[in-house]
Design a protein that fits this description.
The chain is α+β, with helices and mostly antiparallel strands. 17% of the residues lie in helices and 35% in strands. The chain starts with a strand and ends in a 16-residue tail after the last helix.
């Protein structure tokens, strides 16, 4: 077998991105073939390069954008955190270099996570074309938008009406995306490898509507029965489209999963515990008696 090929994408809006990119451009050829590199948050040459791995320099948002850009041609991504949280981008530059040869040779470093296909069907569009389509690594969020009145959505799982909800919107999330907007809205945290889709309401005007997880092979359809002028369907918080009354948002599991290299130096729940402080008790007052 030949040498593995690696492509580097660096977010130019992150501090140290340019200098880190230059350093890795010089370092990687001693360990792998350098298939290309870009200082951009929207890589254009990645699909054509067809590398074996992608090193992503930035934060979680950069990594999510790269995953969406790859679409059906997913390859393992190694996230190097130059941002704040680093929930998905688990490596420092030093950790990347320390484990690089193992990552390229041992499949156990790479895990697969669900990705979603999101489409918007509009009654005025032909059946062959969609008003909007995208991949989603984290979620699709329908938000009320200006003038910020409640909206009404009919939610179907496959062909069965699950419920109609009035409120500020709805979140449809992957297990990997359950710690993003879904968690902030009170939705459940799912282990990233689970085969499930989470449906979480945003401020529903009902005491009976609670988040629910459905099987991963279900198709979730949300019909916009009552919307505002600014109601949108947003994908991963990065791209969005306006919704009109009668539009149907269709969300299903993509046939191609995201492939994410996980830092095996840490236990599976390390990031949740140390960065989101899940399960932590209250901090004692400095003058509390010991």
């Amino acid at each position: 077998m030949g040498r593995k090929s690696v492509y580097i994408v660096a977010n130019p809006n992150k501090a140290r991105a340019s200098e880190t990119l230059d350093a890795l451009r010089a370092w990687i050829p001693d360990h792998a073939a350098l298939a290309g590199s870009e200082l951009t948050s929207e890589p254009a040459g990645l699909a054509e390069a067809r590398p074996d791995f992608v090193v992503v320099l930035g934060g979680d948002g950069t990594l999510i954008g790269v995953a969406r850009a790859m679409g059906r041609t997913q390859v393992p991504m190694i996230g190097v955190n130059l941002g704040k949280l680093g929930f998905l981008a688990e490596f420092t530059v030093d950790e990347l270099q320390s484990h690089f040869d193992e990552i390229l040779s041992e499949p156990a470093w790479t895990r697969e996570q669900m990705m979603l296909e999101v489409g918007v069907d509009r009654p005025t569009q032909s059946s062959e074309s969609r008003a909007f389509s995208s991949w989603a690594m984290n979620d699709c969020v329908i938000q009320a938008g200006p003038p910020f009145r409640m909206i009404e959505l009919a939610v179907y799982v496959d062909d069965t009406l699950l419920t109609s909800v009035a409120g500020d919107g709805l979140i449809i999330a992957t297990p990997g995306g359950s710690t993003a907007h879904n968690m902030s809205a009170g939705g459940p945290i799912l282990q990233p490898g689970l085969d499930a889709i989470v449906i979480t309401p945003i401020c529903p005007h009902a005491l009976t509507f609670r988040p629910i997880a459905v099987e991963g092979d279900c198709t979730v359809r949300i019909v916009a029965t009552g919307v505002n002028e600014g109601t949108t369907a947003s994908v991963d918080g990065q791209i969005s489209t306006l919704l009109r009354a009668g539009d149907t948002v269709v969300v299903r599991r993509s046939a191609e999963p995201v492939r994410l290299v996980r830092n095996r130096a840490y236990p599976p729940w390390h990031t949740l515990q140390t960065k989101l402080h899940w399960g932590s008790g209250p901090t004692p007052s400095p003058d509390a008696k010991r």
